């Protein structure tokens, strides 16, 4: 199957990578795409990042020193002094 790179800048990048690694253009493009796919698939999802953030925040908390967030506390946040 033929593969044509129509963008001159992309073609130049592929040729530079191929020359640096002393490999063919097809192999250079394949390696770059495989590397990018591996990098993207290795990233955690936003949900996973949010869950980890909550876990880290909870681990940093100290329930002994904490104070209840009762109605009086919430009301005090909106009082004008």
Walk me through what this model shows.
This protein has 81 residues and is an all-alpha fold. It has a domain at 8-59. Helix content is 64%, strand content 0%. It is built from 4 helices and no strands. The protein has helices at residues 8-21, 25-41, 46-60, 71-76. The termini are far apart. 1% of the residues are buried.
List keywords for this structure.
81 residues, mainly alpha, 4 helices
Span between termini = 75 Å
Shape: rod-shaped
Q: In percent terms, what proportion of residues is strand?
A: under 5%
| Element string (H = helix, E = strand) | HHHH
**Number of separate helices:** 4
Residues in helices, as a percent range: 55-70%
The main pleated sheet reads as: none
List the helices and strands and how they pair.
Layout: H1 8-21, H2 25-41, H3 46-60, H4 71-76
Care to give the gist of this entry?
The protein has 81 residues and is mostly helical.
